[in-house]
Amino acid sequence: MTMESDVHGNGDSVSMPDPNISQEVDDQMVYQQPGDMEYRVTKDRYVGNIDPVTKLRDGQGCYTYTNPYFQYQGSFEQGKKTGEGVLIMRDGSKYAGEWENGEIMGQGTRTYDDGTEYVGEFCKGEKNGYGEVTYGRRNAREEYYKGAWVMNIRHGFGQLLLRNGNVYKGNFVNNQPLGDCQIFLGDGGSYAGEVTNGIMHGIGELKQANGFAYAGKFENGLKSGTGRFYIQNSSYSLEGMFENDKPTLEANHVLFDLVSPFVEEEVVDPKAKKDPKAVKKDAPFTEEEEAQYGSQKIYLECKSDIEPKEVKFTMRLVFQGPDYEDPNPPEEDEKTKKKPPAKGAAAEEPEIRMLTPEPVTLDQESGRVFAIELGQNVKFLIEDKKEEAKELKDQGQEIPEEFYQTKWVRFWTDQSKKPRDATQVLSSHHASENDASAAAAAEGGSMEEAKAHITSKETIYP
To answer: Which CATH architecture has domain 174-248?
Structure first.
């Protein structure tokens, strides 16, 4: 039961000390505007006009309830609060507005002791219809609401401003946003779609202030189900299934295939014994280079007897899953079967055979752009060794290898400029996602040890 219902229907008639005398309201009690009055201490419970015939309060008056916490100042008609009036509480909160037949009905303003203020429509003391409320200090989450009310509950179309800057605009049920709704985030982002109790739930589209966006299904505020992640004002997008705010399949590797110049792969005898200390051919990085390049660099070394004028390659974004245990390991033959352990010795753990799954090409991802750097390793004479090297050359002697240092020289990428020397070669470059290709036209300079460093974020998804 609300405060308003507590004060309705009580004290609408009163026996006056002298029913034949009409008590006039003093000048300070003349009703002015809602909210202009303060609680008054009076000698009698009612001070004001009465009807001399019916002996009921009629006209302007001040009535103090049996519970002196409440006091009404305003208009009466035949003993009922009707017209404009103010209900004042001793804590300073009040209602100022329209009354009808003793009930708070129509337009009014309700203020509370914590600073909360509601301005709008009422029905029998309850907020009902259209109204606007500014929340006070006791509401740490909500700041302002305007819209529809049903018996003191936000219900219908409305807009809610939270103290964190978020704004909800749409349908409200039982005080909470429910159904189709727009959310304007305090940081500049926005959401349009279905919500449940103010949480993104169902089909919708989220646009974040950092440029990331997602259109699809949400569950409890997280991306979950079929959807499309994309970057605003760009060509990048990723479609597929999402779970716990992340895509179930996301590119974590780039497959880089050299198209030309064609280099034949070295034929390896499968029966030949492998040297465990041998460096893998497909791992060209030293520990220092790995630390420098990390997992975001791809290294390509072109070696060919024919100096190429053009290098072509393809790139594919793939998801490479982790290795897994072979569910059907091959049976051991008598030669490879291990001997049983000696008596009292612990049995050896069986060797687990791990398999690497085939990479999954992500055709549903598109628009990713890679930064390509083309160049070559060039040998330079060390500056303080040049004179000594010249003397050796004049004497017909071979210049020692330690007189040189190798530097990576990047090709020019501005085709409007000419190379300054043979080590700075005019080239063009571009590569993007699935089946991306690039061609670098070289003029002078050896391509025998040319390298392409392709820089890509291992995962673009935030």
So the answer is: Single Sheet (2.20)
